[in-house]
Write a structure and sequence with these properties.
With 282 residues, the protein is α/β, with parallel strands linked by helices. Helix content is 40%, strand content 14%.
Length: 282
């Protein structure tokens, strides 16, 4: 009886190219998982992975991301979004875009998909499933990627959502509760990094005026993240979770990039994926 497996990509803006390397490697190795859990940029990475489009994510991070339409101060002033989610997951990704998602392949792949977002109004965690992604409609990926303050909340079915990383940043418990026995966890921070609260306090103060419940989740994100990482490490000792994380961030952060850093991070993810076949076979 095959082990039920899941993969989680926690996203992390430009650092999330680490996960693209992991996924390209396992596409080459012909490895499938039963369920993907995508948070923020991780959800975008996994859309290409499920569509089996090797190299697509790499092109987005190393080529398109340097365009001002993709992510820039100019985009922020023009669209109120530093990262132009409609450009990335619409203009470029729709069937008539520059590099469309192979939606037919995405839909045909039996791998499940859960996209994590945060309800801006009440702060609750929303888990969208694969059936909410339609042809030329990647709204749930946009919602999961809407970083507070850098982006406006993204409205799906009349409800405004923010980045899934403020609600359930490392959904390992969710995956195990859903019945998956082996979980590959892709991080985009160092595995032993303890997240600090201070960076989230200024945006939380601004967010409080419009969405107080989401502001509170943002204020407590550091604790949620740190607690979930500790839990993942305990499960790793039990052989239920495999944590893949970069050893260096190469000058990248959520909204900051450089070409050499992106390329290095991608290669490190590709190399880290070597551990996956043995983990799944145990």
């Amino acid at each position: 009886m095959a082990v039920k497996s899941a993969m989680i990509d926690v996203g992390g803006g430009f650092r999330a190219i680490f996960g693209c390397g992991v996924m390209d490697r396992i596409l080459e190795d012909g490895i499938d998982v039963d369920m993907c859990y995508g948070v923020s940029a991780g959800a975008a990475n996994m859309t290409s992975f499920i569509a089996r489009q090797h190299g697509r994510n790499h092109t987005f991070y190393t080529k398109y991301a340097f365009r001002k339409e993709y992510a820039s101060a100019e985009s922020y002033f023009k669209n109120h979004n530093f990262a132009n989610l409609d450009y990335i997951y619409g203009t470029l990704s729709n069937h008539d875009g520059e590099y469309p998602v192979d939606f037919e392949a995405f839909e045909a792949n039996p791998t499940g998909f859960t996209v994590v977002a945060c309800n801006a109004e009440d702060g609750s965690t929303k888990y969208f499933d694969k059936s909410r992604i339609h042809f030329d409609d990647f709204d749930v990926v946009k919602a999961s990627s809407a970083v507070p303050i850098a982006c406006e909340p993204y409205v799906v079915d009349g409800v405004p959502y923010y980045d899934g990383g403020i609600a359930d940043p490392v959904p390992v418990q969710k995956a195990l509760d859903d019945g998956y026995e082996k979980v590959i966890l892709i991080l985009s921070r160092l595995r032993d990094e303890v997240r600090q609260q201070r960076k989230d306090l200024p945006p939380a103060r601004i967010l409080e005026r419009t969405y107080p419940a989401a502001a509170e989740r943002l204020r407590m994100r550091y604790k949620t993240y740190n607690d979930e990482i500790e839990l993942a490490k305990r499960y790793e000792e039990e052989g239920r979770v495999l944590i893949l994380a970069p050893e260096d961030l190469y000058g990248l952060n959520t909204l900051k990039k450089n070409f050499e850093g992106l390329e290095m991070m991608y290669r490190k993810g590709y190399a880290a994926a070597e551990a996956i076949p043995e983990f799944l076979a145990e």
